[in-house]
Write a structure and sequence with these properties.
Strand content of chain B: 25-35%
Number of helices of chain B: 8
CATH topology of the largest domain in chain A: MetI-like fold
CATH topology of the largest domain in chain B: Rossmann fold
Number of domains of chain A: 2
Oligomer: heterodimer
Number of strands of chain B: 22
Strand content of chain A: under 5%
Distance between the termini of chain A: 51 Å
Largest sheet of chain B: 6 strands, mixed
Structural class of chain A: mainly alpha
Largest sheet of chain A: none
Number of domains of chain B: 2
Shape of chain A: globular
CATH superfamily of the largest domain in chain A: MetI-like
Helix content of chain B: 10-25%
CATH architecture of the largest domain in chain A: Orthogonal Bundle
CATH class of the largest domain in chain B: Alpha Beta
Helix content of chain A: over 70%
Bound molecules: adenosine-5'-triphosphate, magnesium ion
CATH superfamily of the largest domain in chain B: P-loop containing nucleotide triphosphate hydrolases
């Protein structure tokens, strides 16, 4: 037994717990901080020893270079590819999910078959797809990657949206049908508002999947539609690495994802569907 | 004129035959109740009329128009669901206005109708609230409001009160009846509660296993049931059924007790079932020639009345007496049975003779 009175013991334990939590946070956040800080450093500061923990002056030279050389455009490319494919995958996938959920299209097991497509390792299909794309002349094109990302994300969207749609009480849709809505109006006025949280969450994930893709972009693009993850790898040289560019590009590439997740958080509050039917 | 005419309607769920040839006419302006035990096909029939289920065969006419294959929106109906089916993301006002906006009513007309419906249902103060901020009874009022603003030819209710507690259910039942008297529209109401059916209906359609067992006014069904099933389904406590044989002007029960037959029924010596409502058993004078002397087994006071379980005629029967009948288990009673109101049933067909 400790000689300390109870409340003292309690305080010590709490202090240790906080110290641990802070330590762990530092370990995990530090690399992110370091990357962020490097992007604002001068070349001298980057290689200085002892390290410069925080830059004396924040300067945007690294970013200016990226924009001047056109490297920053790869972020825009990624935005177009991920954005367009997310929109297509969400439209097609949600309609397919509605059909599966409400009309049992393809039978009960069809949805499982669809999601199983998603589990295929991308590496296993990238080569056949490359050959196909060469034959179609789709290599290094926006539509080529948009179609690929759409197809690749479709099973995920169908699977997720089917679950969200099945959670909507059927009576809400039936009531709307009786009240004078067509199927399309039911989708618009009942299914989408009811599944709003699910729609946003799924869209954010779909976006991030496409955004983070490296493999397909590496194999299927050359110079025209280089995406930002592929561009970053160009900075890892044989002899030396362009730390400043790596850091600045990474920060640029993280901003859209950061906003996507921030938006999602708002919509993941699910309380909205309460009170539809008697609980 | 009939607002709804159903002929030869069949419904299959896969191999399961849920509706087996329904023929039905619902006269204009009447309150019709579909009643029957759970699983008999009431909801299926209502939903097929609404177009939410597709008919497997037969014909449905609404307002003289064949709508068997029409979409729900083209049938001129409004419907109230058991679990309210309110849109949680819309205010009460927008919920009620939903059907009018879906049908592209002018906004001024929409506002006027919503206000009127809200006033009729006493929910005018709740219009800005959301469904989650309402009690169960208030939600059901909103659901009803959403139907009545529509001014449809046919109003359908599928067990709208079964999610409410007993007290609220009684209030809402009165409310619905009043609404019908005010609106004078054709309403079809589904319930498995025979008291709800008796109190609300102008006309009862009693279903059993996908067929109509009997239809008519509540009193006609109550007083002149066509079958043993109808006789047993309507009324509380349930009708008593006693086995017996026809004799000369009497029915002889299994224990030898004789009940007089007011009019000749069936053939002599034939087996019958005598159906007697608890309300048609009364206390008689001890020693009277027509009274039966019995011993009470169990009593259940209800406040106003008293239900006594009594061994009689080779079985047990329930009689309903005055609350102050001062009867206890083991007490001796002399009971009179009003045979002029008894149902004599042929056990072979279960039909009332
Ligand atoms: N979608 C369906 N698929 C298969 N069978 C069904 C379906 N809907 C209903 N049934 C069956 O049809 C029969 C009639 O169902 P219905 O819902 O009409 O009964 P109900 O009279 O409304 O009963 P309750 O009082 O319990 O609501 C039941 O035996 C039910 O199991
Ligand atoms: Mg039902």
């Amino acid at each position: 037994m400790s000689a300390l009175p109870f409340h003292r013991r309690h305080d010590v334990r709490l202090a240790i717990r906080y110290a641990l939590a802070i330590l762990i946070t530092i370990v995990f956040v530090f690399p992110v901080y370091w990357l962020f800080i490097i992007s604002f450093k001068t070349p001298d500061e980057i290689f200085a020893f002892p390290p410069v923990w925080y830059p004396k002056s924040v300067q945007f030279a690294n970013y200016r270079v990226l924009f001047k050389d056109g490297d920053a455009e790869t972020v825009l490319n990624s935005l177009i590819l991920a954005g367009a494919s997310t929109i297509f995958a969400m439209i097609l996938g949600t309609l397919a999910a509605y059909s599966l959920a409400r009309f049992k299209t393809g039978g009960e097991n069809f949805a499982v078959w669809i999601i199983s497509q998603r589990m295929m390792p991308p590496v296993a299909i990238v080569f056949p797809i490359f050959l196909l794309y060469v034959a179609f002349g789709w290599v290094d094109s926006f539509h080529g990657l948009i179609i690929l990302y759409t197809a690749f994300n479709l099973p995920y969207v169908i699977w997720m949206m089917r679950g969200y749609i099945e959670d909507i009480p059927l009576e809400l849709e039936e009531s709307a049908l009786v009240d004078g809505c067509t199927r399309w109006e039911v989708l618009w006025k009942v299914v989408f508002p009811m599944a709003r949280a699910g729609l946003f969450a799924t869209a954010v994930f779909t976006f991030v999947f496409a955004w983070n893709d490296f493999l397909f972009a590496l194999v299927l693009t050359r110079t025209e539609v280089t995406t930002f993850p592929v561009q970053v790898t160009h900075y890892f040289g044989g002899q030396s690495n362009f730390w400043a560019k790596i850091a600045a590009m990474s920060v640029l590439g993280t901003i859209p994802v950061f906003f996507a997740v921030a938006t999602m958080q708002r919509f993941l509050v699910r309380g909205i569907s309460m009170g539809a039917v008697k609980g | 004129m009939a607002d709804l005419k159903v002929s030869g309607l069949h419904k299959f769920y896969g191999k399961f035959h849920a509706l087996k040839g329904i023929d039905l006419e619902v006269p204009s302006g009447e309150f019709t109740v579909f009643v029957g035990p759970s699983g008999c096909g009431k909801s299926t029939l209502l939903r097929t009329v609404a177009g939410l289920e597709e008919a497997s065969g037969g014909r449905i006419e609404i307002g003289g128009k064949d709508v068997t294959w029409a979409r729900p929106r083209d049938r001129d109906i409004a419907m109230v669901f058991q679990n309210y089916a309110l849109y949680p993301y819309l205010s009460v006002e927008d919920n009620i206005a939903f059907g009018l906006r879906a049908r592209k009513f002018a906004e001024a007309e929409t506002q006027k109708r919503v206000a009127r419906a809200a006033e009729m249902l006493g929910i005018g103060a709740l219009l800005k609230r959301f469904p989650r901020e309402l009690s169960g009874g208030q939600r059901q009022r909103v659901a009803i409001g959403r139907a009545i603003v529509r001014d449809a030819l046919l109003f359908l209710f599928d067990e709208p009160l079964s999610n409410l507690d007993a007290q609220l259910r009684d209030d809402m039942r009165v409310e619905i009846k009043r609404l019908h008297q005010e609106l004078k529209r054709t309403m079809i109401y589904v319930t498995h509660d025979q008291i709800e059916a008796m109190t609300l209906a102008d006309r009862i359609v009693l279903l059993r296993d996908g067929v109509i067992e009997q239809q008519g006014s509540p009193l006609a069904l109550f007083e002149r049931p066509a079958t043993k099933f109808v006789a047993g389904f309507l009324g509380s406590p349930k009708m008593n059924f006693l086995k017996g044989r026809i004799g000369k002007g009497v029915v002889t029960l299994e224990d030898g007790a004789k009940l007089p037959l007011p009019s000749p029924k069936g053939k002599e010596g034939g087996a019958v079932i005598v159906g007697i409502r608890p309300q048609h058993i009364s206390l008689g004078a001890k020693g009277s020639r027509t009274a039966h002397h019995v011993i009470v087994e169990l009593v259940q006071p209800t406040g106003t009345r008293l239900h006594a379980t009594i061994p009689f005629g080779g079985s047990t029967i329930v009689g309903e007496f005055d609350a102050h009948a001062a009867t206890k288990p083991g007490a001796q009673l002399a009971i009179e049975i009003d045979m002029s109101r008894a149902a004599i049933i042929d056990p072979a067909t279960d039909k009332v003779i």
